[in-house]
Amino acid sequence: MTPRRIGLLHPGSMGARIGEILRAGGHEVLYCPAGRSPRTLRRAQDAGLRPVDCLEDLCEGTQILMSLCPPEAALDVAQAVAAAGFTGLYMDANAVNPERMRVIGGLVTKAGGTIVDGCLIGPVPTRQETTRLYLAGDARLTGEISALFNGSAVEVVVLDGQVGAASALKIAHSSFAKTSRVLAALAHALAAEYGVGQALTDEARRRSRPALAEPDFFATVAARAWRWAPELAQAAESYRTVGLPDTMLRGAEELLRTWNEHKDIEHAHIDQLLRELRTDQQHGT
User: Fold this and answer.
1) Is CATH 3.40.1350.10 correct for 5-162?
2) What are phi and psi of 124, to 5 degrees?
3) What are φ and ψ of residue 123, in 5° steps?
4) Domain ranges of the chain
5) Nearest Cα residue to 8 out of 65, 62, 77, 48
6) What is the SS3 assignment for 63?
7) Distances in Å between the alpha carbon of 223 and those of 232, 263, 267, 279?
8) Which of 107, 42, 61, 100 is nearest to 80 (CA)?
9) How many secondary structure helices (H) and strands (E) does the chain include?
10) pTM score, two decimals?
11) What is the pLDDT of residues 90-142, one digit of tens each?
12) For 205-247, what is each residue's pLDDT tens digit?
């Protein structure tokens, strides 16, 4: 494709690597060093990114802006870009929820730009088949972003959905991935109190199927919820006893109790079970 001039906000570990990949594809990648840490500046320099003096120069001198920043900064960055009058294509690939993504999209389009919703899943891409960039929005715009990564280590997947769909995927995936790691840490903390940490690790290694890839198993969970909920109540007490937080266990216990009516019935439909987890359904609204 025709080489493009792309602005990057900002070259963190993921952003710098994305910038390096885009440069390898023949594109010019710019960034604004103002306010960046020495580590970020080194990464940008190592990636061959070209510095500009300020955000206004970045907005005026580029056709595409890519925002890859901490999620709590995503809205502020979009507001600053809109205030600078950017009228090109803005891709937000931050871990923000769909509602926040739609607000960001509104800011960008009101200022005269166009928006693509993106999310990156996987590690910093150093080889093929590890990192995917999911895109959602207008097909012409997602196609333009997708073409930038042809032949690179980033696999692009365009979703059937409007702005917010890619963000929803990121939140759904990361909420499980991050929470499960925290739960694993809690489980090992409890096991360590009783000297059974290695036994816990050994037992876990006997299971190889990822829970997130088994939605068909939800009906079995619901059928067992009547006894799993009290078990988690016991677990919560164990965590409290040794001074560990029980909040996540109590939350899981509460959710399991919403499935009590499915006791020993393993054929409930997945859609029904997922609806029952909604708080508005639980409260009868």
Assistant:
1) no
2) -55, 125
3) -75, 175
4) 5-162, 170-282
5) 65
6) coil
7) 15, 5, 8, 20
8) 107
9) 12, 8
10) 0.86
11) 999 999 999 999 999 999 999 999 999 999 999 999 998 899 999 999 999 99
12) 887 677 778 888 889 999 999 988 988 898 898 889 889 999 9
